[in-house]
Amino acid sequence: MARGKFGERLKRERELREVSLDELSKATRISNRFLQALENEDWGKLPGGVFGHGFVRSIARYLGLSEEALLGEYDSARGENLPAHPAKPEEPIPSPSQWIPAVAIFLGSLLLLALIFYSVWYGWRHIGASRAAKPAPAAIGASRAAKPAPAATAASADADLELSVSASATTHVRVIADDKVLLDSQVYAGDTRHFTAKRQFDVSATNSAAVLLQLNGRPMAPLGPPGTFGRMVYTHKDLRQGNGGDSKP
């Protein structure tokens, strides 16, 4: 497949640094076939969204290129190859007969009068019913005194915690839910795992930047700086605060 500007630049930068595809694949933990697809701009063989962006960031970081600049070229190149949506043909508007506007105005006037009459009638009826049903002040005080305090409603802490773990590059991930180990193995690029807990999740990864976390559908902060080991503990408190979990020493 012929390469465009993005694929040509990616291959040129790699070859200028005398980096082979195998070396780049081992360093970034990105499959060789994904690297070849990027250089050939074979978008059909590549994952989209955060995974595609994660691949480009890892490659730029290893080759010493600007991540944001390379991401911009990637988005432009991929956007130009997306199929365009066909324009919806406009349907001709039939010309109405001359008598239709007059009938529409007449019916609209009747409907407006009916709505006004109904609104007035309903308003008077509602006011009369409110006056008849309004209790005396003494009765209100007695009712309030007799009414028990409402029971505390269940807080969001009663809901289960749902954790989604996605990897933009291959890394070792450990997930502990309620003191039970659910995952302690390699997670490969493009994989997504889902877990459930009652109280908390303890998540760690050897490559913090390669792990994307969502708690009950809400994105969480990275586990740590890129290329380092990171560990975080997530509880219901993170759902209320709307940011990352509490770090655990």
State the order of secondary-structure elements, H for helix, E for strand.
HHHHHHHEEEEEEEEHE
Please state the CA-atom Rg, rounded to the nearest Å.
Answer: 31 Å
Distance between the termini: 50 Å
Oligomeric status of the shown chains?
Answer: single chain
Helix fraction by DSSP (H/I, runs of at least 4)? 40-55%
Could you describe the largest sheet, including whether it forms a barrel? Answer: 5 strands, antiparallel
Work out the helix count.
8
Count the beta strands: 9
Mean pLDDT: 78
Unreliable runs: 83-89, 148-155, 244-249
Tell me the strand percentage band. Answer: 15-25%
Strand order of the largest sheet: 3-2-5-8-9
Alpha-beta content class: alpha+beta
> Could you say which overall geometry the principal axes of the C-alpha atoms support?
flat
Identify the notable features of this structure and list them briefly.
249 residues, alpha+beta, 434 Repressor (Amino-terminal Domain), five-stranded antiparallel beta sheet, four-stranded antiparallel beta sheet, 8 helices, disordered C terminus
Element layout with pairings:
Elements (H helix, E strand, L loop, with lengths): L4 H12 L4 H8 L3 H9 L8 H15 L3 H14 L18 H35 L3 H10 L14 E7 L3 E7 L2 E8 L4 E6 L2 E6 L5 E5 L2 E2 L10 E6 H6 L4 E2 L2
Antiparallel strand pairs: 1-4, 1-6, 2-3, 2-5, 5-8, 6-7, 8-9
What's a concise summary of this model?
The chain is α+β, with helices and mostly antiparallel strands.
What does this structure look like?
This protein is α+β, with helices and mostly antiparallel strands. Among the domains are: 5-80, lambda repressor-like DNA-binding domains (434 Repressor (Amino-terminal Domain), Orthogonal Bundle), CATH 1.10.260; 157-247. It has eight helices and nine strands. The strands form two sheets. It has a five-stranded antiparallel sheet. It has a four-stranded antiparallel sheet with strand order 4-1-6-7. Helix 4 (49-63) packs across helix 5.
